[in-house]
Design goal:
Elements lengths: L14 H4 L1 H12 L3 H8 L3 H10 L5 H18 L6 H16 L18 H12 L4 H8 L16
Helix pairs in contact: 2-3, 4-5, 4-7, 5-6, 6-8
């Protein structure tokens, strides 16, 4: 797994923001019971999940894969209620928050601050910096009330 991406990729839109209508269509089919469509839609989020769980301390690929599978299984159970892509992203964010409780990563310097991030900071770091999500997608996934508040977070402007 490559963890660091060049800063040039931050300017390019992510595949999620480009293909939101396609993903929405796949989630609707998945909500009707089409496992294949749900799997195709969830595949867009594999990098996000892998990087998030890596920051949680799941450095072994087998452990990380197990956590990804368990998270996506919970999302599959929620599939009939997905109407928009942001519904799935919100549910995914909630599932990641549940899985991040009781986890603490003790990293050596100069990376020790990454281990001290709370769930929301970690999610925003991975989604915005490493995956290139738009601020609008972040608002919808986190359901933050005040527009503009996410852009001012130090974690996103580092």
């Amino acid at each position: 797994m490559t963890f660091l991406k060049s800063t040039v990729s931050n300017n390019a839109p992510s595949s999620i923001s480009i293909d939101r209508s396609k993903i929405r269509s796949l989630f609707r089919k998945g909500g009707a019971g089409n496992v294949s469509a749900f799997t195709q839609a969830a595949a867009y989020y594999l990098d996000l999940l892998s990087e998030y769980f890596y920051l949680l301390g799941y450095t072994d690929p087998c452990d990380r894969l197990f956590e990804i599978e368990a998270t996506l299984f919970e999302c599959w159970r929620y599939a009939p209620y997905i109407r928009r892509v942001s519904d799935f992203e919100r549910f995914l964010e909630i599932q990641l928050e549940k899985r991040s409780q009781d986890r603490f990563l003790d990293l050596p310097e100069p990376h020790s601050h990454l281990g001290q991030l709370d769930h929301l900071q970690r999610f925003l770091l991975v989604a915005r910096i490493y995956q290139g999500w738009t601020y609008r997608s972040l608002y919808l996934a986190t359901r933050k009330k005040k527009p503009g508040s996410i852009e001012r977070w130090p974690i996103l402007n580092a």
